[in-house]
Design brief:
The complex is a heterodimer of chains A (140) and B (612). With 140 residues, chain A is of the alpha+beta class. Chain A is 17% helix and 20% strand. Chain A has 2 domains: 77 residues, no CATH class; 56 residues, Alpha-Beta Plaits (2-Layer Sandwich). Chain A is globular, with a radius of gyration of 15 Å. In chain B, helix 1 packs across helix 2, helix 2 packs across helix 20 and helix 2 packs parallel to helix 22. The chains are: A alpha+beta (140), B alpha+beta (612).
């Protein structure tokens, strides 16, 4: 089953297309990388000993198992997509308490309109992978 | 009502009285001018009183986006800065992809920002969505561009904000100072000097809103097609591999790389500046601008020697041509360091290399001596002198104070016939194309709105690759009008000029349709481009420019190329000009747009108002 994102940071050029496309598909056509469920860390002043893999670094939801975000959720708003083996957040059940935001040490839960959102792998065809021009993101 | 792309709002800030206004963007103007550069040309023609000193409080500077900024349309990270150039007195626009400022301005809720007035003390403008403040910038005055970006990020406690700063050169009103965020310059036309004259150190923005497109489904289809086309473009791989430096060899082989103040066509040290050398010696990583699928930017890092640890994005073709071969420098590490200093001090690398090379030739000919230069022997190829002069220019220190006025004013000061090889048009220094080898570039320099700015529509490729006759005057009027028009549209929709990879105007216009819901036929688009270019011409005429200002320096017209592929050639400017004015519908004898042209372009009312 191919359902995990793999990052090859050496290839990332920091274009942030993954963020742009992620925001568009998860926010009803609204472009703004701040709303994305993926995030690229960009370093424009690397030093001589900085490895290439630490210049532009995409950060993605690792789909942890067990998942601290899920365990922190009092209203049980997380539901598992069994096919993809991915936790999704039911926007109707989410109360916006942000417990999951605090619990995720990777900062991958994003608040929008007082509701929590996380990467759902776009039903198995993630747009971040599809539009990455340098193949720095791979689905496997 | 805007359906997508545009926000529909312009932010206006007056630094004298601190008044901040938000006004709607007129939809008809947006349609008639297709976005960024076009809209601002219209604003400037309407709002800037003739004769306004570029450094007076009444002068304006506009930071403008187009309909595509903030969407995922390929090649659209940029924004334009428009101002009356202190070098030439003409209208000037500079395009910049740095810092993702353009998209962020739209996320904050504005298509553009127009600034006028003058602050009593150094300030920066902080745009935090709908909250806009004029803040104290005393702490950053005198600081480099990098220090300023870092300092403001720290002060506001947010690494994600976007900052476009000036350096000390802008503060000191070096006439060719630029605005340089993240090693990417809005370099030409004195943008930084105009900001400095207003005591405006930086614009800072954070935007949490969104940009929407009119037809998301169609947009996705277009995006898929565009990505395929970019991948399939055989030229794209070279750009990704070497950035813009591949053009060094292409220009040199045509005899078109500037060498020692545009005096010759061959250079012994050329191998040191070719793409392979640049890649091997300084490039370490590919960098993209925001949202761009073609990473042509290169992180450069100096790995050893006295400048070890110097890091920047670059150096690119124009910089290598001007700070390298034009100054007789064949050491790419030195060019990289010079590029870094220009970025940090906030200087346009092109104009800097142009004026230094001019001074070097004057020194070599004995027109200036150690007494004038403060003891500096200005020899071509002297790296230490090059680096020292950059610092002196930015600080207006000693001889640097004269260089800071640009090539034209320096030659007027020196006199003694030096104007014959002062390589500028209308005060704006030549870019990295020697026009005697590709004569259409001479026509472009002579007729570009702000003077010798290559990025107003380079004819280089069309002449060399398509026409395969870079020396003939025939057909150049049409080629030049077409390339200038292409750039009018690019700068208005605001596509990067590299949107030629997998793209053409048809594809650009289909994106405009999907994003804005507005359909433009190819013919309508040409009319928009002609309208923009002719309106800019009217602006310049109103400022007192005449046909006599559409001219090249003596060297380009009268001194045959001494060697190289274009040996013996000069620029047949007059023949090309006549052809060009005809193509544009401007009077051949006066260079003034004909009434029927103005009527056809919908400019007659504006032109009449100006006549009165």
């Amino acid at each position: 089953m191919m359902n995990r994102l793999r990052i090859i940071a050496e290839r990332c050029s920091g274009c942030r297309i993954c963020e742009l496309m992620c925001s568009m598909v998860h926010h009803d056509g609204a472009f703004n990388p701040r709303k994305a469920l993926i995030c690229v860390e960009i370093n424009r002043t690397p030093q001589i000993d900085t490895p290439i893999s630490e210049i532009d670094i995409p950060h993605v939801c690792l789909q942890c198992e067990p998942a601290p975000c899920v365990e922190s959720c009092l209203p049980n708003a997380f539901e598992k997509d069994e096919d993809l083996e991915v936790w999704k957040i039911d926007q109707e059940l989410c109360t916006g308490c942000q417990a999951c935001v605090d619990e995720c040490q990777y900062g991958m839960i994003v608040m929008d309109n007082d509701r929590a959102m996380k990467c759902d792998l776009c039903d198995g065809d993630p747009v971040c992978v599809r539009y990455c021009p340098t193949e720095a993101l791979i689905l496997e | 009502m805007f359906n997508g792309g545009y926000i529909g709002k312009i932010l206006r800030v007056n630094l004298t009285d601190g008044v901040i206004r938000k006004e709607p963007l007129d939809e008809q103007i947006a349609r008639d001018y297709m976005g960024g550069r076009g809209i601002v040309s219209h604003f400037f023609f309407r709002e800037l009183k003739p004769g306004t000193d570029p450094f007076s409080p009444e002068s304006k500077i506009c930071f403008m986006t187009g309909p595509l900024q903030g969407t995922a349309t390929p090649f659209t990270p940029k924004f334009v800065i428009v101002n009356r150039s202190p070098l030439s007195g003409s209208l000037s626009r500079s395009v910049c992809g740095g810092g993702a400022f353009g998209p962020e301005l739209k996320y904050a809720g504005y298509d553009g920002l127009m600034v006028d007035g003058k602050a009593k003390a150094p300030v920066y403008i902080w745009i935090d969505d709908d909250k806009v403040q004029i803040r104290d910038a005393q702490a950053y005055w005198g600081k480099t561009t990098g220090e300023t970006e870092e300092g403001i990020r720290k002060e506001l406690g947010d690494d994600s904000i976007k900052v476009i700063p000036i350096g000390p050169a802008g503060e000191n009103r070096v006439l060719f100072a630029g605005v340089i965020p993240d090693s990417r310059a809005a370099g030409r036309g004195g943008t930084g000097a105009v900001m400095g004259s207003k005591q405006l150190k930086a614009i800072v923005v954070r935007g949490t809103g969104s940009v929407h497109v009119a037809d998301p489904k169609r947009f996705i289809t277009l995006l898929e097609e565009a990505y395929e086309a970019i991948k399939a473009d055989p030229m794209a791989a070279g750009r990704i591999e070497y950035g813009t430096t591949g053009t060094v060899a292409a220009a040199y082989k045509a005899g078109a790389l500037p060498i020692m103040n545009y005096s010759r066509g061959t250079f012994d040290g050329i191998d040191g500046l070719f793409a392979e050398t640049v890649k091997e010696k300084v490039y370490v990583h590919n960098e993209s601008c925001f949202g761009c699928p073609l990473p042509c930017g290169k992180t450069a890092l100096i790995k050893d020697g006295p400048y070890k640890g110097t890091v920047l994005q670059g150096p690119q073709f124009e910089t290598i041509g001007l700070l390298g071969s034009n100054c007789g420098v064949d050491d790419i590490v030195a060019v990289t360091r010079a590029n870094y200093l220009c970025n940090q001090y906030g200087l346009d690398t092109i104009s800097t290399g142009n004026v230094i090379a001019f001074a070097m030739e004057c020194y070599q000919r004995g027109l200036i001596t150690d007494i004038d230069t403060g003891g500096l022997p200005l020899r071509f190829g002297d790296v230490e002198i090059l680096l020292e002069l950059i610092e002196k220019i930015a600080k207006r220190d000693g001889f640097g104070d004269l260089l800071a006025e640009g090539t034209q004013r320096l030659s007027e000061k020196i006199g003694k016939g030096s104007e014959r090889f002062a390589m500028h048009c209308k005060g704006q220094g030549f870019a990295a194309f020697e026009p005697r080898s590709v004569v259409g570039m001479g026509l472009l320099y002579a007729t570009a709105t702000p003077g010798a700015n290559h990025s107003y529509g380079p004819t280089f490729r069309k002449e060399l690759v398509d026409l395969k006759d870079p020396f003939t005057h025939k057909g150049k009027g049409r080629i030049c009008r077409n390339t200038q028009n292409d750039y009018c549209l690019q700068d208005s929709m605001i596509f990067c000029s590299f949107s030629r990879y997998g793209f053409d105007n048809t594809r650009r216009l289909t994106f405009i349709d999907a994003v804005t819901g507005w359909k433009y036929s190819e013919a309508e688009a040409t009319r928009v481009a002609d309208r923009i270019y002719t309106l800019e011409r009217l602006f310049n005429l109103r400022e007192g420019f005449t046909r006599e200002d559409d001219v090249l320096p003596w060297r380009s017209l009268n001194e045959p190329m001494p060697d190289g592929p274009a040996k013996g050639n000069t620029v047949p400017l007059e023949k090309m000009l006549v052809d060009y004015y005809k193509e544009r519908g401007w009077d051949e004898n006066t260079g003034v747009p004909r009434d029927e042209t103005l009527k056809e372009l919908g400019l007659i009312d504006m032109a009449e108002a100006f006549k009165q």
